[in-house]
């Protein structure tokens, strides 16, 4: 944001091009009715001004949005569930903890994904945290079109079953057995919030994703 603001300020000379500046922290706790020339973006109040008397908000393209989110390093999970005895899964890094009491997690799923309908109907799924040697498994379950019965042959994925019948990936760093708590549509995705009923944790290093590339964990800092 600072780089963008500097660039905009540099371009706002004697002409009428607008410039954007963040209001100081003392002005960020403002009532719902903001003064003219102010707009609220998340937790920040942004002041929009122009020597020509016209105000313009900063626009963000989808490519810029994706690039910004790519700067946030994440682990990778595979969400698994049983459907008529078959293992269904999808790769997801939009996964996070929500609450400790009760123990809740969330995963965001594209509404066009096949797993989306399965999650609504089954209301139970597993979260498998991938280890650093699981890149092929991540790529396999990230493919839009995939045959669920070829995971072992193409990616080396092997599964056990929990007492609930949920598939558990061999070698996963952690496994969480989840029961659907609630679902909330958000844009083109749905946020599935689930209660964690069981966990399994093993030693190892995670597979990471940063800057649209797979990574391995490095030394501590």
Shape: globular
Helix/strand order, N-terminal first: HEEEHEEEEEHEHHEEEEEE
Strand ordering within the main sheet: 6-5-9-12-13-8-7
User: In which range does the helix fraction lie?
Assistant: 10-25%
At CATH's second level, what is the architecture of the largest domain? Roll
Q: Give me the Rg, rounded.
A: 22 Å
Just give the CATH class of the largest domain: Mainly Beta
Query: Helix tally?
Result: 5
CATH fold description of the largest domain: Pnp Oxidase, Chain A
Secondary-structure content class: alpha+beta
Spell out the CATH superfamily of the largest domain.
Electron Transport, Fmn-binding Protein, Chain A
* Main sheet summary: 7 strands, antiparallel
Task: Sum up the structure in keywords.
221 residues; single chain; 2 domains; 5 helices; Pnp Oxidase, Chain A; three-stranded antiparallel β-sheet; seven-stranded antiparallel β-sheet; disordered N terminus; alpha+beta
What does this structure look like?
This protein is an alpha+beta fold. The chain folds into two domains: 2-60, no CATH class; 74-210, Pnp Oxidase, Chain A (Roll), CATH 2.30.110. The protein has five helices and 15 strands. Strands 6-5-9-12-13-8-7 form a seven-stranded antiparallel beta sheet. A three-stranded antiparallel beta sheet has the order 1-3-2. Strands 4-14-15 form a three-stranded antiparallel beta sheet, with no helix packed on it. A hairpin with a 4-residue loop joins strand 7 and strand 8. Mean pLDDT is 81; it is low at 1-31 and 41-51.
């Amino acid at each position: 944001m600072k780089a963008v603001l500097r660039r905009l300020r540099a371009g706002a000379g004697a002409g009428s091009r607008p410039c954007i500046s963040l209001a100081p922290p003392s002005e960020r706790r403002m009532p719902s009715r903001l003064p003219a020339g102010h707009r609220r973006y998340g937790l920040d109040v942004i002041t929009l001004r122009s020597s020509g008397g016209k105000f313009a908000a900063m626009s963000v393209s989808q490519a810029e949005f994706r690039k910004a989110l790519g700067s946030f390093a994440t682990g990778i999970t595979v969400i698994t569930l049983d459907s008529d005895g078959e293992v269904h899964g999808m790769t997801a890094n939009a996964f996070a903890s929500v609450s400790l009491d009760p123990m809740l997690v969330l995963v965001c799923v594209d509404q066009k994904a096949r797993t989306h309908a399965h999650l609504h109907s089954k209301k139970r799924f597993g979260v498998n945290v991938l280890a650093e040697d699981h890149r092929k498994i991540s790529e396999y379950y990230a493919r839009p079109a995939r045959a669920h019965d070829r995971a072992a042959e193409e990616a080396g994925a092997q599964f056990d079953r929990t007492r609930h019948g949920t598939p558990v990936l061999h070698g996963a760093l952690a496994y969480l057995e989840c029961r659907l708590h609630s679902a909330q549509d958000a844009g083109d995705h749905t946020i599935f919030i689930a209660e964690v009923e069981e966990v399994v944790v093993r030693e190892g290093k995670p597979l990471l994703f940063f800057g649209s590339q797979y990574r391995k964990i490095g030394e501590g800092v």
